[in-house]
């Protein structure tokens, strides 16, 4: 069960060089039990190839750039034990390709957007973003990164998805507008900065199939939630036709339509396509005329609720 670490149970006289070499070949962590007189460059190299984390036990005189590369090729997080002078862009790149978590040990002067884009260009999984240390995080860092690796948008924290970040994303993806991006990729809903929500973009959002699968949050005010993203309702419902389409898809949004749009004509147009939107209509708009109009449009589901209102 212990493999090479069984070396610790050997008596000193039986820990010969060949035995120790066999042990660290099987399990690099067995280097911990190798007598000092056997800690050669060969022994340390073999151990690091097997388990890069054992680099922490390698004598300084053997801590060469090539040995460090062997270690991080085995375990990316071994980068934390690589001397500063050897933490070059090349060795750091090898480490983070092996383990995203090694990003925490990349020197600040190396950890640039260009470095990240190069190291992660073949990674379809963008979860590596979460391993970028706080010391390196800034809106400028992510804005530049969006130019080089735009697919990070869904993994970039909201506070860094600035208008500039999103514009860089759109430009990198060769979209002419935010609306076009939404039309071609519905999953972008909730990931674009609201500062890009012009009329065309708002309309594109509410016209998607994905929008109809959203839900008004029960825990967060003024928010429509989607899987892994959300949209502020007041940033979206700023145009009459957008409100119309939004309520048609999600009738509960009737209660969020701005008062300036809530004319009798508008309400009736909504009821023409979604009579159940009446359930979310503010009491101040439930005039006798509106009540009767809703009953006309209803296919039976609202009648009992509305009759109780009119008789009560």
3D structure, described in words:
The chain is mainly alpha-helical and 312 residues long. 40% of the residues lie in helices and 3% in strands. It is built from 14 helices and three strands. Strand 1 and strand 2 form a beta hairpin. It is elongated and about 100 Å long. The model has no long low-confidence stretch (mean pLDDT 92).
Give the biggest sheet.
Answer: 3 strands, antiparallel
Assembly type of the shown chains? single chain
Radius of gyration: 31 Å
Spatial strand arrangement across the major sheet: 1-2-3
Contiguous low-pLDDT stretches (5 residues minimum) are none
What series of H and E elements makes up the topology? HHHHHHHHHEEEHHHHH
Distance between the termini: 78 Å
| Shape annotation | elongated
Average pLDDT: 92
State the helix count.
14
> Helicity, in percent?
40-55%
Number of E-state strands? 3
How do the strands and helices of this protein lay out in sequence?
Layout: H1 17-26, H2 41-50, H3 65-74, H4 89-98, H5 113-119, H6 139-148, H7 163-172, H8 178-184, H9 199-206, E1 215-216, E2 223-226, E3 229-232, H10 233-236, H11 240-249, H12 264-273, H13 288-297, H14 303-311
Antiparallel strand pairs: 1-2, 2-3
Helix pairs in contact: 1-2, 2-3, 3-4, 4-5, 5-6, 6-7, 8-9, 9-11, 12-13
Provide the descriptors you would attach to this structure in a database record.
single chain, 312 residues, mainly alpha, three-stranded antiparallel sheet
